[in-house]
Amino acid sequence: MQLSLNKSLVYGFGVALLALFVVGFIVGAIGSKFTDSNPFLKKPEVHLPPQLIYDPFTSDAHGDSHDDHSKESDGHGAHEKDGHHGLPPNHFVITNTLISSWIATLILILVLVLGARGGRSDREPKGFYNIIESIISALYGFAEGVVGDNAKKFFPLFATIFLFVLVNAWLGLIPIYQSLSTFDSEGHITGHFLRPAGTDLNMPLALAIVSFIFVEYWGIKTLGFGYFGKFFRFGALLKGKIFEGIVDFFVGILELLSEFIRLVSFTFRLFGNMTAGEILLLMTSFLIPFAFSLPFYGLELLVGVIQSLIFSALTLVFVTMAIEPHHDEGEDH
After folding, report:
1. How far apart are CA 124 and CA 118, in angstroms?
2. What pLDDT does 142 receive?
3. What's the distance, CA 213 to chain centroid?
4. Which residues contact 126 (CB under 8 A, 6 or more apart)?
């Protein structure tokens, strides 16, 4: 009886998905071309810069005071202003991606605090605490496998980066999350109140800078001034080995450049993947609404995990390389 009921539920779910796909195809951008009608959803517009929500210094919300240009209609009822694209660089403003990063931070703090309360010594650990403990244990085991005995020192930053990037990536997959909008006095949409922080170039860059400083700090703390020996290789030149010395010198320059190139690679890897995922979901929903986007949501869940792991794991790898003693190629081993 139970098996028959399960089969019926699966069959019904499959029929519902198929029906949603057919309806979505008909009312979507593709089907509307055949029926000569308007698509169910308006054509999506992607704005790479974050949108201004509030400027506390001028008490102006939604970016209305940053230019006196008149509103320009996009042809679909939504209005945009230059203030959304050119944020003032001279003082602090609140953007939709900044709000999103605050939300992600609060969620992490709340979840970890509640999870820690479940593990108090005067009570038996329960479900939620066990889930949090399993996640932390898995992350610590991964860190230990990469950096060995140094896992205890490097784990806090590794876990923080992983969880922060993951929560930000998954928040953007909540259907209603990016639908919250700001409006002007005439009821026109002026911007989206929330947007995943990973799609703002500033957030990946900030994390890349934190990772860079972390790596350099531990390299200098562990090796002292000897850490700079891999960048400035003069051992062979001092020994009169001209050819080897020149080669070592340029190798050191390349090592130095690679340290700073990591800032670029870290930043654009995360930014590119998060932004591409957002555009993919927007376009699939526009072309065929409803069920067609579900597989891509599953893909983006996986991408969020992978990108979080890559960013945090590479930080561990680079700090491991930084604290390892190195020798000038011109030295005798």
Report:
1. 8
2. 92
3. 19
4. 118
Of 304, 325, 317, 309, which Cα lies nearest the Cα of 154?
Answer: 317
Q: Packing angle between helix 151-171 and helix 202-223, nearest 10 degrees? A: 180
When the pLDDT of each residue in the chain is averaged and rounded to a whole number, the result is 79
**Phi, psi torsion values for 329, nearest 5 degrees:** -60, -20
- Residue 1 — pLDDT band, cuts 50, 70, 90? low
Which position has the token pair 């990063």? 101
Q: Which two tokens stand for residue 167?
A: 């929560």
Q: Are 210 and 156 in contact (CB under 8 A)?
A: no
CA 2 – CA 214 distance, rounded (Å) = 56
Residue appearing with tokens 């796909």: 21
Structure tokens at 246: 């020149």
Question: Is the pLDDT confidence value at 237 over 70?
Answer: no
Structure tokens at 55: 């400027």
Domain regions of the chain by residue span: 2-35, 52-323
CA distance 45 to 85: 13
Return the SS3 of 147. Answer: helix
CA 246 from centroid of its chain's CA atoms:
41
pLDDT value, residue 71: 40
The gap from C-alpha 114 to its chain's centroid, in whole angstroms, comes to 24
Distance CA 102, CA 92 (A): 15
CB 193 within 8 A of CB 179: no
CA distance 308 to 314: 10
Q: What is the DSSP string of 221-235?
A: HHHGGGGGGGTS--H
75-120 pLDDT, tens digit each = 443 344 444 445 555 667 788 888 999 999 999 999 888 877 765 5
Judge contact between 100 and 196, C-beta under 8 A.
yes
Q: How many C-beta atoms lie closer than 10 Å to residue 70's C-beta?
A: 7
Angle (CA) 99-215-332 rounded to 5° is: 165
Specify the residue for token string 């020994």.
239
Q: What is the pLDDT of residues 153-169, one digit of tens each?
A: 999 999 999 999 999 99
